Amino acid sequence: MVSVTVDGQKVEVPKGSTILEAAQKAGIKIPTLCHHEDLKVNAMCRICVVEVVGARTLQTACSQPVTDGMVIITNSPTVRQARKMNLELLLSNHPQDCLNCVRNQRCELQALADQLGVRAQSFPTPKWPEYPKDESTPALVRDPDKCILCRRCVEVCHEVQGVGAIGPANRGMETQILPAGGENLNDVACVLCGQCSLVCPVGAIYEQDHTERVWAALADPEKHVVVQTAPAIRVSIGEEFGLEPARVTTGKLVAALRRLGFDRVFDTDFTADLTIIEEGHELIERLNNGGTLPMITSCSPGWIKYIEHFYPEYLDHLSTCKSPQQMFGALAKTYYAEKAGIDPKNIYVVSIMPCTAKKFECGRPEMSASGYPDVDAVLTTRELGKMLRQAGIDFNQLPEEQFDDPFGITTGAGVIFGASGGVMEAALRTVYEVVTKEPLPSVDFTAVRGIEGIKEAEVDLKGTKVKVAVANGLANARQLMELIKAGKADYQFIEIMCCPGGCIGGGGQPIGTTNAVRKKRIEAIYEADRGLPLRKSHENPAVKTLYEEFLGQPLGEKSHHLLHTHYTK
Ligand code: HC1
């Protein structure tokens, strides 16, 4: 341990701690902008400067390790003036149009200006806009004028996701964060995961806004507007309304969507259960008939885009199942349309997703098996929060309501899709019982749970051993893909989710999503699973009815047409 003095208080911290951490221990919150608790970025914004007695210059608290006996002053006139000056310099190169900014009132720069008492502009500012917005992708928008060059997005893209689609370009005053080669985002190997938008402190990168098209559909008397909500939303939407992270708010979420005016409120967990039936049978078929193994899950669209860019020769390892989002849309415009007696051209399907890449997925050419796009609009958790605020709906006061039929009954297996390892666990719950024809001794496959990057397990299907692996975050996915490439992956089934922690950590989740919050949301997902009377997809009575009334059998002709696809890029 090392002993230091912060503003007159003595504290002991582990060797290697930064001044920032030592100050935290002393109960002092040093302001920062580039620093992020999950990333290694530091000393870019120079807001966290402090005095260290004996040092000739101010030190950046986020990057400077403490030494034994160090005396630190975090709140002197010199420190306050330097922080203010550094912030004003940042503001001098930042548009002053907070009202028009997607991050208005959720902007770290704006909050810091308020905290440090910066009210007026001390330096001349350039004319805006200086750089054009990049709206080339269907999922994300880059606004380079807003960028403060903090490098968080670069770090998350390179180190956490292992993608490296964006990075610093040019030098000095000309420095910008740009897609590789200065191209538009759509022209580089960006997977649209949106993790950059989750860590951006300002409004420099954010999701394509679908709220206006959803308002328009809701106001259109011709349209029958149905909404599906992803497993991960129920444990995060409360955060948009100030609830503590990871509160399970399923019933309030349903009520909120009904108050917004949706004609039917359905649960993507229903088609998560359906995915398990189709994907489970596909796995059994591949195991029995010498199909391509390991089979890899295909429900995460950022992961699909990643394998298309970086490992296209392994596309036949993907399950042919569409994602639950897309299965839902295909069924809404066929089975549901028939049942409800509504012309599918008048059905408008909205998804509430924790994911920015889902906006890309719904526009893929493979995703219109009914003759219409399966899904018409995708709202992130953040966009849903925005719409509910616009409508004046007091989320926290809402009653608990139930999803609508026929896509309202779900199982715990569907819920756990939202956490890394959940698709695997849900599949194992079903595959075990289908293959062995015996009840599972325990439904909890804890070895595949948690935020750890790569998890492994072996399951004995009464004589047939199935070795499985689970990766979350694309840097971890790359490790598994390299094992497959080297012929060293002896797995039969792999789950890969694009985002750290799985969908609960998706790029469309509330600002403030950190790994600590992800862990809480994962716990909440399993809490929701435990609270349901049914926890295995094949026990879902509504899924059984769907097969009886419409699909026939798993992997049958109708399933093949509506619920499966092939990625061939
Ligand atoms: Fe997901 Fe999925 S779990 S991909 O993370 O398979 O986004 O929540 O909806 O489609 O069900 C996301 C979440 C989601 C799909 C399901």
TrEMBL record:
Residues 78-117 form the 4Fe-4S His(Cys)3-ligated-type domain. Residues 1-78 form the 2Fe-2S ferredoxin-type domain. This is Iron hydrogenase small subunit. Keywords: 2Fe-2S, 4Fe-4S, Iron, Iron-sulfur, Metal-binding, Oxidoreductase, Repeat. Coiled coil: none annotated. NCBIfam families: FeFe_hydrog_A (TIGR02512), FeFe_hydrog_A6 (NF040763). GO terms for molecular function: 2 iron, 2 sulfur cluster binding; 4 iron, 4 sulfur cluster binding; ferredoxin hydrogenase activity; iron ion binding.
